[in-house]
Design brief:
Number of strands of chain B: 2
Largest sheet of chain B: 2 strands, antiparallel
Structural class of chain A: mainly alpha
Strand content of chain B: under 5%
CATH class of one domain in chain A: Mainly Alpha
Shape of chain A: globular
CATH architecture of chain B: Orthogonal Bundle
Oligomer: heterodimer
CATH topology of chain B: MetI-like fold
CATH class of chain B: Mainly Alpha
Helix content of chain A: over 70%
CATH superfamily of one domain in chain A: MetI-like
Radius of gyration of chain B: 23 Å
Number of domains of chain B: 1
Strand content of chain A: under 5%
Strand order of the largest sheet of chain B: 1-2
Number of strands of chain A: 0
CATH architecture of one domain in chain A: Orthogonal Bundle
Radius of gyration of chain A: 23 Å
Chain lengths: 267, 305
């Protein structure tokens, strides 16, 4: 092992530095959510809980957060349903034009967001559609769909078809097989896909900006605020979302590790 | 693909398509695929159509009629050539920086920590942690950190590393710095997926045959992990080339850092010059399609997702 390692300490030290680089802006945003601001949130003026306690006092922050959550939930539900169906089809069924389907699913992930945003906006423009919450949701479902397919596909691929066959052998109807066997087994993958989709929708700014019209989302609020200085309350929302997301992910991982240990002990 | 790293379990044991019941497959595929047809493919066509439109005879701003104005492209290239060049230069430099930062990091998590899966998982979470805080907030944080009256700049000025009239905010360096930062996870994840599967016995064999660590890396590790490098490069380069947040003056950019994305967004949403915005988008998309088709030719379509 030692012979081909790059030196014992170089890699851990390098990685630690990289992690510090990755985490600096997060720490900064978190720290400045406690700043006792006056007009702008640029220099440190003292510690306070005010911004956290009275988040909604800052005009527009909570409304923007609310509409982002609403848009995120609706887009996630639609994208997850359609994406899961596609993932099952791709893994389980043989069909013609398979490579075309793969390509069609890959391209939205490979297209720059300005192109996706401007394209959809130009289509809404030529159709005379008024932009608003609905057009944002349409856009979000579009770019979340492929990510759902990728995530669920991994789970479908690791599913043993023998389990479903056993169900059929025991005279379960196709819908019973799906809801009692396939769906519960796919659920962790579907949940992961839904979380990813929500995160993508919640954080999207570029595509949203092209298709929002007068509607505001949290990222759009931050962008508009940036020219005159982002209020500390926006840092509060960002930090709270971050802490929540990290908590969820770490809990899932630790629980998974404990489960794996138990399984190993049984074996 | 990179984002499979988010999903649980990627074993392809049962992955060969077994059934050929066309009707069920069609039923499952049609809603999603027609959605993509309607809201992904048609908009691309709509972009091409818009990019060829001519101004309305009435001269009203933001009103155009169908046409075949190839000149829109000539105009877009002539006027915005610096922005096009800048976008691809920034994207190239930032992608290389992201690769140099990500490869050792991914190697550390994927190879060195292979015996400690929980730590691996937690560090991977740290890699994607920036995704959990708003993209705009974390970019803005860098602007604040490097702002002219911030601590970092005071230090750099006091130690004469920078001359008193030199600033970082608004420079090419700042924009590339931000772009690199924001897209590192897109590079690290695919690298991690390939490095995690790297067979260590191959490295042992190489060192048994008296190859130096550097030769082993160059002749064994690097070629084996090339798929990860290519897919990470695509996933990083493409969004960077189209980004406009980092380069905009409200965030990390200045007067001379505007990229294609900035022009598209201001032409589309501010000056309502839809044909120019569309022409630039179409050209950007064309470059991306060339990159993707090279990738598909090399590795096929099954590995795309």
């Amino acid at each position: 092992m030692r012979k081909f390692s790059l030196g014992k300490w170089t890699l851990p030290v390098y990685s630690t530095l990289a992690f510090i680089y990755l985490l600096i802006p997060i720490a900064y945003t978190f720290v400045f959510s406690f700043n006792d601001t006056f007009k702008s949130n640029i220099s440190w003026r003292g510690f306070t809980f005010d911004n956290w306690v009275n988040v909604c006092d800052q005009q527009g922050v909570c409304e923007a957060f609310g509409s982002s959550v609403l848009i995120g939930v609706i887009s996630t539900l639609i994208a997850t349903a359609m994406g899961t169906a596609i993932a099952i089809a791709i893994v389980r069924y043989r069909f013609k034009a398979r490579s075309m389907v793969n390509l069609l699913l890959f391209l939205p992930m490979a297209t720059p967001e300005v192109v996706l945003g401007a394209g959809l906006a130009s289509q809404f423009l030529s159709m005379g559609v008024d932009k608003g919450i609905v057009t944002i949701i349409i856009a979000h479902v579009m770019f979340c769909l492929s990510f759902v397919v990728v995530t669920v596909k991994a789970r479908v691929a690791s599913l043993d078809p023998a389990l479903e066959e056993a169900g059929r052998d025991l005279y379960a109807s196709p819908s019973q097989v799906f809801w009692k066997i396939t769906f519960p087994l796919l659920l962790p993958g579907i949940m992961a896909a839904a979380l990813l989709s929500f995160a993508l929708s919640f954080d999207d700014f570029i595509i949203t900006n092209f298709n929002a019209g007068p509607a505001t989302t949290f990222p759009k609020y931050v962008y508009t605020a940036a020219s005159k200085g982002i209020p500390a309350e926006a840092n509060v929302v960002g930090s709270a979302v971050f802490l929540f997301a990290i908590l969820v992910v770490v809990t899932v991982q630790v629980r998974g590790a404990i489960k794996a240990k138990r399984l190993a002990a049984i074996k | 693909m990179a984002f499979a790293a988010f999903g649980s379990g990627g074993g392809g044991k049962h992955s060969s398509p077994t059934k050929s019941n066309g009707k069920v497959a069609l039923f499952l595929l049609i809603p999603g695929l027609s959605y993509l047809g309607l809201f992904f493919l048609t908009p691309l066509i709509s972009l091409v159509v818009t990019s060829l439109e001519a101004p309305d005879p009435s001269g009203a701003i933001g009103v155009y009629q169908y046409g075949f104005e190839i000149n829109n492209y000539v105009y877009a290239i002539q006027t915005f050539w610096p922005h096009i060049a800048r976008s691809f230069t920034y994207a190239l430099i930032a992608t290389v920086c992201a690769l140099l930062i990500s490869y050792p990091l991914a190697y550390f998590i994927g190879v060195r920590l292979r015996t400690r899966p929980l730590l691996q998982g937690l560090l991977l979470t740290l890699v994607i942690a920036p995704f959990f805080i708003s993209f705009l907030l974390r970019t803005f944080a860098w602007r604040q950190i490097f702002s002219s009256d911030g601590v970092v700049m005071q230090f750099l000025h006091a130690t004469h590393i920078l001359a008193p009239d030199q600033y970082i905010a608004g420079t090419d360096f700042m924009v590339i710095f931000g772009l690199t930062y924001n897209f590192i996870p897109f590079m690290t994840l695919p690298l991690y997926t390939t490095l995690e599967r790297l067979d260590l016995r191959l490295l042992e064999a190489s060192s048994d045959l008296y190859a130096s660590p550097a030769t082993t890396f160059r002749k064994v590790t690097l070629p084996i992990t090339m798929p990860g490098i290519i897919s990470g490069t695509l996933l990083t380069f493409i969004p960077i080339a189209g980004d406009f947040v980092n380069a905009s003056p409200e965030f990390l950019g200045g007067a001379k850092t505007a990229m294609i994305g900035n022009v598209v967004q201001s032409s589309f949403l501010e000056t309502m010059d839809y044909p120019t915005a569309s022409a630039l988008s179409v050209m950007l998309m064309a470059v991306i399609l060339v990159l993707v088709s090279v990738y598909v030719k090399k590795s096929g379509t099954e590995d795309l997702l």
